[in-house]
Amino acid sequence: MGFGVLLLLAATATVTLARAGDRASVPATGDGRRTSYAAGTDERPRPSAYPRAGTGDFVTAPGESPVRGTDGPLLHYRVAVEQGTGQDVDSFAVAVDEVLGDPRSWIASEELRLRRVAEADDADFTVYLATPDTSERMCAEGGLSTEGYTSCRLPGQVIVNLARWLEAVPDYGAPLAIYRAYVVNHEVGHELGEVHQACPGPGEPAPVMQQQTYGLDGCAANAWPYVDGSRYDGEVVPGT
């Protein structure tokens, strides 16, 4: 075998070995999920738990809920889920209804009543469940930057980020159901005119208007504006 042939075989072997150590990326699927796997192994691609993007169109929960609360003005809300999220609008509506109708929620003030409706013309605000990309775009229309991570509220729009709804946040220290109740009460609280509050002190419950998604600052996770039958607050965070 000639010297030139030996050089060619050696070069080919080097390229083959280099490629075997690469990470191969599977292109995004139609719903925005991405997967990756190590080339040359038997590891299967594992999709994300949620799509980054949906269709941008929303389906509204049908029907109405009972009136929640004992006194005060009656506000009406709708519930809508983005298509392409894999989430059932009726199930999301039930979850929102249970949070807002809980005796520890905003109706405990006895100065507010709430009822879910189906028609946009009848609603004072809408609670949306949206993918990270769609929620970021919706929030940005009101001048809010969420980086596709947090939920937000704009006038008449409570926008819940699908990723947070499904995964909460790292080190939250409470079950997912508690975070879900928190995010609904927090963003609806903004719709009701509430502003951000600070942790009162280490080990104390976090006020529901604390930005718990960004960290608890030593407080314990808390989903409710009323604790032990009384309104629970922290100091107002200036400028929020």
TrEMBL record:
The keyword Signal applies. Residues 1-20 form the signal peptide. Keywords: Signal. It comes from the Bacteria. Residues 48-218 form the DUF3152 domain. InterPro entries: DUF3152. Residues 23-66 are annotated as: Disordered. This is DUF3152 domain-containing protein. It comes from Micromonospora echinofusca.
